[in-house]
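Bit of a strange request maybe. I'm writing a small parser for structure token strings and I need a real example to test against, not something I typed by hand. Could someone generate the tokens for this chain?
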Amino acid sequence: MNALVFSLMLAAQDDNGGGFNFDNPPPDATPPAETTPPAETPPAEVNPDEVGGDTSGTLQGTEGESKLDEGINLTLKDRIKAVSRKVFLKEGRFELQPAVAVTTNDPFFRTWSLAGRASYHLNDAFSFELGGAYVPPFFVEKLQPLDQLREQQRLINADATLIGVADAGVTFSPIYGKLAILSDAIIHFDAFAIAGAGAVFDTNVDFAHPTMDVGAGLRVFLLRWLVVRTDLRDYVYPQDRASISTLQNLLVFSAGVGFYFPFDFEYRYEAARVKS
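Reply from user aminoacidic:
Good idea to test on real output. This should exercise your parser:
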């Protein structure tokens, strides 16, 4: 019996220390649990100010994708850019225009005149105007065909030179636009049509002749109160010369500047409403 107890005690001895190991508990037979790997952290954004190197290659892909996404989400209304507002308003304003005019289709005389016009603009499209021109005596230039017909062939016995014109009418401006010059300066302008009636005065016996005029013009806006204006008018009137009645056609080109009163204007904004 004693021998059996002694043999059991020898089997329980520690192989390394040669004695009993009462400090370390027996190993747990349960297998270790699986450990979860740590979550990956997203890379921090690169600040070009803090990093000295070039980061355009890193940011190019993200920026391109964001622009593409924005373009996909845009509606048709967002894609179309709105037309910019007018830089010049004429509604409710007066226009005074001094100008210089010249006849362009008279085969016998080239006549220069001092012209002027006054207009009131009902809105940006329509206006009423009064105007006229006066021809000083030294502003008349005789052309070569007149002397040839009068002296060599004796076909003209009397000369009738222009004294001036006076008319009243309306203008209609259906076109407003802008033009870029050398991709730097932008010029704003409008084009208008002219119709009116008045009188033409010359040195003939019946010096006053009723007339109707039609034409076209152009305004170039320089300041909020200043424009450059050109007109081309066709005056049609009857004339009696040497007991012969004819229908005359006088084409006059004028150029000048226009001053607007009041000098400034304000824009008015109205909200759009849907009719019920």
